[in-house]
Structure formats: structure tokens, C-alpha cells
Amino acid sequence: MKKINKRIIANIRVILEKKEMTVERLAFESDITKSHLSRVMSGQRNISLKNIEIIADTLGVDIEELFKKLT
Fold first, then answer.
1. What residues contact 43, with CB distance under 8 A and at least 6 apart?
2. Which residue stretches of 1-71 are H helix?
């Protein structure tokens, strides 16, 4: 898995934890299928820019937050 994908996934996990939100809830609220999001979060699939934007909106963060080194 590429470094940028790892960083984005790690940042999503950190934000989810801070918001006390599950991946399942993120999938539901973002209208991304749970199976697709699970594959992305496990590193089996790359995340698209479109889905990065949707996830950032759903989490209520600027898209830049998903690219920063948070962890």
C-alpha cells in the first residue's frame, strides 16, 4: 500500500476515534457501501479522490486533514 493511502486511512481512524464514530456509521452516513469502505480501510483497495472528499465532508473536516500527518 502506498504511503499516502496509509496516511489517509490512519487519519480517518484518528478522526473516527475522536468523534466516537464507527466505520459502519461512516459508511452509512457517507453513502459508501460498508464492504467498499472496509476494503479501503484494510488497504485492499485504494481510495478515490471522490470518496476522500465525501468522507471529509461526512466527518466534518477539511479535506486537507486527511492528508496531514496526524499520527
1. 1, 5, 6, 9
2. 3-18, 23-30, 34-41, 49-59
Measured between alpha carbons, how far is 3 from 31 in angstroms, rounded to an integer? 26
The reported pTM is: 0.90
pLDDT in tens, 33-68: 999 999 999 999 999 999 999 999 999 999 999 998
What the chain holds in terms of domains, given with CATH numbers, is: 3-66 (1.10.260.40)
- The answer to whether the CB of 45 falls within 8 A of the CB of 8 is no
DSSP 69: -
For residue 9, which of 1, 29, 18 has the smallest C-alpha distance?
A: 1
